[in-house]
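User: My collaborator and I are trying to settle a disagreement about how two of our proteins should look. Neither of us wants to argue from intuition anymore, so we agreed to look at predicted structures for both before our next call. Could you fold the first one, then the second, and keep them clearly separated?

Assistant: That sounds like a sensible way to settle it. I'll keep them separate. The first protein:
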Amino acid sequence: MGESPSAIGTRAEVEIAAALTRAGKQVYLPLCASDGRVDSIFADESGLHRVQCKTSRLLGDVIAFSTCSNTGGVRKDYQGQADYLGVYSRDLDQVFLLPVDELPSRGCHLRLGPARNAQHKGLRWAGDYLIGRSSPKR
């Protein structure tokens, strides 16, 4: 039997907090808001930043993840409630940090390699958002 959704989410939160810490950020975790819209907060030279943690799926050369919650069939984005999405790729053992205000409202893709149709415009390259480790584990 696979991991429960709660266990998968907890793993993502831990990996994202660890990556931010390794990157020199001070990370703060909520004590009593496990169902809140923010999973962690980090501090750096520009202030405090709210982070919502997400897990991803590896689909060939694309890392896919949701940019909204889906509770009871109701989708809700994180605009105004979180500053960043921290995305954990279990497949690559990597963490990505993306500004919420630059993301689509439902889902997003990060590219690891060029698109098959040679498209370049509008692509989000995973390496631009990677925290820490410099190369994928493949």
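The second protein, kept apart from the first:
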Amino acid sequence: MDFELIPLTIPGERFVALAAQHAADFAPGAAQHDRDGSFPFEHIEAMRQSGVLAACVPQKFGGLGVKSLHDYVLGINRLGRGDGATAIAANMHIFQPWRLTRLWRTATAAGQERRAAQFAQILRQIGAGQVVMCPLLSEPGTDLLHPLVEAAKTADGWRLNGRKNFGTMSPVAQLFNVSCRVRDAQGQLRWAFATVPRESPGVDVRNNWDALGMRASGSHDVVLTDCLVPDDVLIDVGPWGEWTEVFLGGNLSGTMGLVGAFLGIAEAARAAIVALVMTQRKGPSGRTLAERYPI
């Protein structure tokens, strides 16, 4: 039986086809990048040029216009079949415009012109291949709902301090989407996301990722020290520690993309095993491994 998942939309078909071609191109060098622990900058550049990194950007902003979450996940899945580390790294960027597009539409419908214009600008930059994003969510000693990175209000905006880990895609990102906690006028803790340019003073990508696997994903720690950002780059998510619609939608899409990458890795492993047992022969019978007795 054929259990192959296929895209449901025309933009999805384009994305999946491009991702499959990239997977074939990336596969030969994947093991070397993993062995070296080196980040595949050339893979990111190839996906920037093909438009894969702008898959979920609306066509009016220069992207492929993928709206279907199903098709987005399949594109990541195809990348995972060729290079798992590149797939999980790319996913951490590709789901960002999927999330931003919904925030842009919500702000537009609510008449929040300034906010909508901010989202539209980032979407245009991604669509033009000018910006790669990296979400900074995870931190040592806490969970995603309780970020400890602090954003303190100042006369000039917000000053961020703290440490993030698992900054996947951080070697090449121009923008970091940082989850943080803030205090409202009543002193109550809330949580928010701040868009932080890489060149901002106080941003330090530690280049310390050295895991047992996926060593080419560039999942470094990022330390923020008195990093000042303007007032209007902070998006309030809701009460600190609570699930909210804004976070749930973004987290769901990014997590499903990771699952797609993991499925692609498993599919590639299965294909390699099947090819091995169907072709390798051992004496004295000369039968393939698939035909031999298990003892």
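Some points you might bring to the call about the second protein. Strands lie at 133-136, 150-154, 157-167, 175-183, 189-197, 203-205, 220-229, 234-239, 281-282, 287-288. Residues 85 and 241 are 30 Å apart (CA to CA).
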